[in-house]
Amino acid sequence: QVRLVESGGGPVQPGESLELSCLASGNIFSINGMDWYRQAPGKQRELVAHIAAGGNTNYADSVKGRFTISRDGARRTVYLQMNSLKPEDAAVYYCHVNAMTWNSSRWDDYWGQGIQVTVSS
C-alpha cells in the first residue's frame, strides 16, 4: 500500500557529504512523521533523525550539527543531508514513515528496503 524507495547512498571518504532521499508512493492519504534509522553490522537499529508533519526535527546526539533532515510534502519525499561523515556513520540507512492510506482509518508504520552508506579512506 505504501512503498518507500531510498536513494543516494554509496561509498565516501571521511569528511565528505552525502544526501539520502526517500520517496513515498502508493495509496497514501496522509503522512505524519518521517524518519531515518540506521543499522551497522552487529548493532541495533537506531533512530538518526526525525521530522514531524509540522516540521519539528530531532536528531541522535551522534549526528547533531552534521546531519539535516528535511521533507517535501508535495513530493512525499524525506531527505537526509549528511556532512562531515565519519567511519562510525557507516551503516544501512532505512527510511521510515507513519502514514495513513485511503482505505484505512489508522496510522501505520512503513519501512524502506535500506541503503548502504560506507565511510572509509
Keywords:
elongated, 7-stranded mixed β-sheet, 4-stranded antiparallel β-sheet, mainly beta
What does this structure look like?
- The chain has 121 residues and is mainly β.
- It has strands at 2-7, 10-12, 18-26, 28-39, 46-51, 57-59, 67-72, 77-82, 91-101, 108-111, 115-119.
- Strands 2, 4, 5, 6, 9, 10 and 11 form a seven-stranded mixed sheet that branches. The chain has a four-stranded antiparallel sheet with strand order 1-3-8-7, with no helix packed on it.
- A hairpin with a 6-residue loop joins β4 (28-39) and β5 (46-51).
- The chain is elongated and about 50 Å long.
- The termini are far apart.
- The relative contact order is 0.33.
- The mean pLDDT is 96.
C-alpha-based Rg, rounded: 14 Å
Helix content: under 10%
Shape, principal axes of CA atoms = elongated
Order of helices and strands: EEEEEEEEEEE
Look at the structure and give the mean pLDDT: 96
Into which percentage range does the β-strand content fall? over 45%
Strand count: 11
Which segments are poorly predicted (pLDDT under 50) over 5 or more consecutive residues?
Answer: none
Tally of separate helices: 0
Distance between the termini: 40 Å
Structural class: mainly beta
Largest sheet features: 7 strands, mixed
List the helices and strands and how they pair.
Blueprint: E1 2-7, E2 10-12, E3 18-26, E4 28-39, E5 46-51, E6 57-59, E7 67-72, E8 77-82, E9 91-101, E10 108-111, E11 115-119
Parallel strand pairs: 2-11
Antiparallel strand pairs: 1-3, 3-8, 4-5, 4-9, 5-6, 7-8, 9-10, 9-11
